Input
Amino acid sequence: MNIYGISLENLELYLEGIGEKKFHAKQIFRWLYDKRINSFDEITDLKKNVIEKIKSDFSMDMIKIVKVEKSEDTSKYLFELYDGEHVEAVLMMHDYGRSVCVSSQVGCNMGCAFCESGRRKKVRNLESYEMVEQLLLIEEELGQRISHVVVMGIGEPFDNYDNLIEFIKIINSNYGLSIGARHITVSTCGIIPKIKEFSNLELQVNLAISLHGPNDSIRNKIMPINIVYPLDELMESLDEYYSKTNRRLTIEYIMLDGINDSEICAVELSKLLRGRNCYVNLIPYNETKNIQFKRSKMRQISTFYDILKKNGINVTIRREFGGNISAACGQLRSKEEEI
Ligand code: SAH
Output
């Protein structure tokens, strides 16, 4: 096992399992996430035999940064994993802090028609340590702490649920990366059983739903997951999420020219969301050379926005980061693999 992939509570269980006191877990976490040691030998407050045992059971192997592309307020990192696979993460400098978009899988099986990450199928899930290390390496490269995390990179996080939750526990822990649950957002295309499980978690993590269509017929065309989990069942699961957590949902809606951006769609979306505690993030589509979809015209996006507003829906148009550095959704990995 990799030490960066185990939560505090599981490390406590491990220590008890080898006949040691569980409070050592907090000490070890401090060495890893506060002092940022590179070797277990740097630990000075544990008995030699405990350190040796940990060394024999855990590795500290790191993924590697193989490319960084930077623009003024955005940096894109390409990572290489132990098996030569690649994933990417994006750092965005906001006025409220530094936010990182992490990947959760190598590739993706959801098959959304507009998405570069899904063009090639899932190769494998990321281990929790591979998600944690994206953040550790970015913090090291940047020399600053990350304040916000969104799981919106390559992959469907709810298709890698257990590793996702372990990752969230590690970065959320005060002894880990100390990123507040309210500063963590998980985005899903709508895997209902996992939305239900997520609703029952004690963590106050935010949930974002990639909706992208106001009805089944449009959603079926661009998001195959909708055929398995149709819109009315999805909305029902979101209502349940809200009633259990009291947390406002984010609805992501990519603006695709001529596909889902008509005034009729805006009215339909307003009806669908009216009375529900959510806010809509309209996302200008990032065009990619391998996929034929086009971004909606700015005028169309404004009209769409106005209709939602008029109907009392909370809505924003997403500020764009990194368009000029292939920071859009799986494009850097694709470029690398093509080379
Ligand atoms: N699988 C998860 C999370 C990863 S995708 C999900 O579906 O939510 C993160 C977001 O980026 C999703 O809303 C996805 O639909 C969107 N996205 C994918 N390709 C995009 C593109 N080219 N331009 C803009 N958004 C895109």
